[in-house]
Amino acid sequence: MKLWIAALALVAMMGTGFFLAFPLPGSSNGASRVIDAATGAHAGVPRQHRAMQLLPREVLRVAPATIAERLTVSGEVRPVQRVILRAQSGGVVAELGAREGEAVRAGDMLVRFDTEELAATLALRQSEVEATEARLRFARQALERIERLAERTVATQEQLDQARRESAVLQAQLDGLRAQAGIARAALRDAEIRAPFDGVVASRSVDVGERASAEAELMTLVDPTRLEARVLIATRDVPRIAPGQAAELRIDGLEGETIEGSVLRINPVANDGSRFISVHIGLDDPDGRLRGGMFATGTILVEERADVLALPATALREDGDGAYVLRLAEGQIERRPVVTGAAWSGGRIEIRDGIASGDTILIAPLPGLGEGVLAEVSGG
Question: Can you tell me which residues the record assigns to a coiled coil (predicted)?
């Protein structure tokens, strides 16, 4: 009995001009639907001749655009110029000219060693050189006398050979002592280590009074005005990267800002134990806000083309005849075969043939819409 009452109510509603609109099959949000006959626009028109209503977001008006292919990267900001200052020879640190975080100028004294011990060592080596030089002079004079005596057969050949050996040994000793004196002289000269360039002290490994051995690390100096990002690129993507390509990076701590740069260098070999290549990106930082060690994420512009017709991948359909799109023209859906090109970032596909600028293309994956179906864009 209730079923008959519901049927009669439905017939009565249809008789008064009302029509219940059902969502298009396959549309999760009911975006496409038959226009209600009760609005008056299509009153009295058979349902099969009524247009399906499409939302603006379900279609796209084609227009030439500039499309770009970008490679996502991440890495660390590093100073371009960084030097570790080391002790040329051992000694006691007598004075330090800068602390961590302090700026210095090229030529500023950074580390000075106690010169008393170094000067004493140099004096000792120099005295040994002078003593050996004197012994060598006497040995050569003796050799000359023995050579003259040997010419008159007064001195034996054995005496002559012995004099020559003594002179040669002393010459070798003198050469060695002169080299040691040169090292001591260089150590005294290098007792002061000066900044090789304008920069900031990043670290300091010694304090006043400590003894530093030869080649020990003393300070690390960096140039904060020249920074670059070192990012890792998979080996399969390296052929797409070239010096000069533009990059856009976002830096931790500088939220909401984009730092521009360009590819400077590409390492020739992969990092040990990985299939990644280091790529160095020069950064534009006129305000000096970047710091070494900051984490960076962004993209490298691999390719860019202007005046290209492209569609989202969701607009493409395929059947036994090949790829096609659905175009809305004069209130009706049309099937348009297309020739596709390269796939670009953002899920866009280049369309080389089959559509033109100004065409309205259905981009939403709505099953049930096909060639010949009447449709219109709501509000359009």
Answer: 129-180
